[in-house]
Design a protein that fits this description.
Blueprint: E1 2-3, E2 10-11, H1 16-24, E3 30-35, E4 37-46, H2 50-58, E5 72-74, H3 79-89, E6 93-97, E7 103-108, H4 109-117, H5 124-130, E8 131-133, E9 139-142, H6 147-154, H7 166-174, E10 183-186, E11 189-197, E12 200-208
Parallel strand pairs: 2-3, 5-6
Antiparallel strand pairs: 1-7, 3-4, 6-7, 8-9, 9-12, 10-11, 11-12
Helix pairs in contact: 1-2
Length: 211
């Protein structure tokens, strides 16, 4: 799943322009809508309703009626059961909560397929575009790329037990979101942050030490 700190959604405390940018760049057909943080979620926006949603925001009216109910998933739910639930509900996205009802992350149907059979539908050509290998052995990658995909594609063994994305692993290691380009070591790998946009690491360079 996408960890709590990496969930991208529409914050109603931010500008309408910010909402437009998130909608146009969204990978998913649904986006969480919240106030201040994902912990204060008020509903899910289906992108087919985005035009009406933006118009309502611009008019400073209540958007609640435009939003879909949020699907919450217990952290103890098995993958097979949740996959079945997604199919029954004609829904492919939900928020995972722990035993106290606190949001732990965002789960999609594709995440389940990734866990069971690897990156769903990912061709070798797509991975070669996502992970650009340099002559010196280093790899240029997106911050939101999955560590598992990187390991499988390049034959590395970056730790996958914590955060599932490169961005998350860096933030977890530093215990903060970097505000400028930095270099760090994750296990036996040297990681250089190349680009940061809106408190999100978008481009990194990774090299296995000794290679």
């Amino acid at each position: 799943m996408t960890p709590h700190a990496e969930i991208i959604g529409i914050d109603l405390n931010q500008s309408v322009e910010s909402a437009k940018q998130i909608i146009t760049s969204s990978y998913y057909s649904r986006l969480p809508v919240f106030k201040g943080s994902i912990d204060s979620i008020i509903g899910m926006l289906h992108l087919k309703d985005s035009h009406r949603f933006i118009e309502t925001l611009e008019q400073k009216l209540n958007v609640q009626d435009i939003l879909l109910e949020t699907t919450f998933i217990s952290q103890s739910t098995t993958l097979s059961r949740q996959l079945n639930q997604f199919q029954k509900q004609d829904n492919n996205l939900g928020l995972v909560v722990d035993e106290y009802g606190e949001i732990q992350g965002l789960l999609t149907m594709e995440d389940i397929f990734n866990e069971i059979v690897g990156k769903f539908g990912a061709a070798k050509e797509e991975l070669e575009k996502e992970f650009i290998q340099k002559k010196d052995g280093s790899v240029i990658a997106d911050g939101n790329s999955k560590i598992r995909d990187l390991n499988n594609h390049v034959g590395w063994d970056l730790d996958e037990d914590g955060s599932k994305t490169i961005n998350g692993a860096i933030i977890e290691h530093l215990d903060q979101i970097p505000q400028e380009n930095v270099c760090l070591e994750l296990g036996g790998y040297r990681v250089e942050v190349l680009q940061i946009e809106e408190n999100f690491i978008t481009k990194v360079k990774i090299n296995k030490k000794g290679s």
